Amino acid sequence: MISSFITLVLLFSAPAQSDHINDQAHKQKIIWLVEDKLENRDLLAKTSADTSTASYIENVIIQRLSQYNIKIERVTASRMNRVLQTNENACVANRASTPERREYSLFSDPQSFYLTHKLYRFNQASALPKQLFNAEGEIKDLASVFKLLPEKTLGLAQDVSFGVFLDKQIQKIKAENIYYRGGNKRVVALSSMLYKSRVDFVLALPVDITPNEAQKPLIEQYTIAGAPPYLIAHFNCSKTSLGQRVIDDINQILTEIYQTKDYYRAHKKWFSAKQLDDLQIFLAKHFSEQRYINPTK
C-alpha cells in the first residue's frame, strides 16, 4: 500500500499533487481517534486479515471512507470521551456500546467480536472456595469473590468498559480490592503484574492474555455466570448530523465486509472451531437479517 502510493507520487507532476490536496480540502474532515498504544502505531499498514481482528477491520473502513478527509489523532483512552463530546466530527473504533456513551455519541453495527472477559488467576497454591461456583463451574458473581476473599486484589485496565453486565458487577466491588492500571501498555502491564503476584486476579479478554509456555500450565481462567458470551466492538462517532452520516456510511461498508472470507479469517485466528460454530449460532439468533461470518465465500 505505502510503496504503491510512493510510486504514484513519483509518476504524477506537481500540479497533480496540488489537485489531490485541493480535493482533500473540499472533503469534510473527520478526526479519527486512535489510542496511543503500541499495537496501533502502524494501523494503516494492517491490511491482512491475519493480524488483529479489530485493527484489520478498522483499516478497511478508513480506506473505504474516501469521501471524507480523515485525520488520525493519537490520544489517551480517557481523552477519547472528551473529544467525542466536544467535537462534531470525531470517530473512534473498537468501542463497547454502553448507555452512558450512547447519551453523547453514536454507534455502528458490530465491528468485531471478542470472547468475553474472563477472570484470571496465576500460580496459586490452593483452589478457590467451592461456594464461589455454580453447578456449571462458573463464578456466581464477581463481587462475591472479594467479599469472601477481602484481602485479594483485582487488576483492571483503566478508562475502558467491560460491557454493561460486568461494569455493573465491578461497581459492587470495594475500591480497596481494585487496582486500576492506566497508560498505553496497561494490558501488558497487568499481565506482568499477575505473573509476578502483584495482583491476585485480572479481568481481561482472552485475546489479551498470552502466557508463555512456562506460564500456561499455571494460569487459571474462570467464566462469570450470566456474562454475555461476546464483547461486541463498534465504531463510535460524535452525536451530530455529520456523525450520523459517517455511521451510516460505515454500516453500509460493514454490510459488505460481513460477507467476505477475510471477515471470517480475521476472527478465526482468535476462535477455536467450536467457538466459531457457537458464534455462527449467536449471530443467526441475534443478527438474523445479516450474514456476519461466512467461511465458504
What is this structure, in a nutshell?
The protein is built from 11 helices and 10 strands.
What is the number of beta strands?
10
Q: Which percent range describes the beta-strand content?
A: 15-25%
Largest sheet: 5 strands, mixed
Number of domains: 2
The rounded distance between the terminal residues' Cα atoms is: 24 Å
pLDDT under 50 segments (min length 5)?
1-14
Q: What structural category do the secondary elements indicate?
A: alpha/beta
CATH topology of the largest domain: D-Maltodextrin-Binding Protein, domain 2
**Assigned CATH class of the largest domain:** Alpha Beta
Give the name of the CATH architecture of the largest domain. Answer: 3-Layer(aba) Sandwich
Quickly count the helices: 11
Shape: globular
What is the average per-residue confidence, as pLDDT, rounded to a whole number? 84
Radius of gyration: 21 Å
CATH homologous superfamily descriptor of the largest domain:
Periplasmic binding protein-like II
Order of helices and strands: HHEHEHEHEEHEHEHEEEHHH
Q: How much helix, percentage-wise, in residues? A: 25-40%
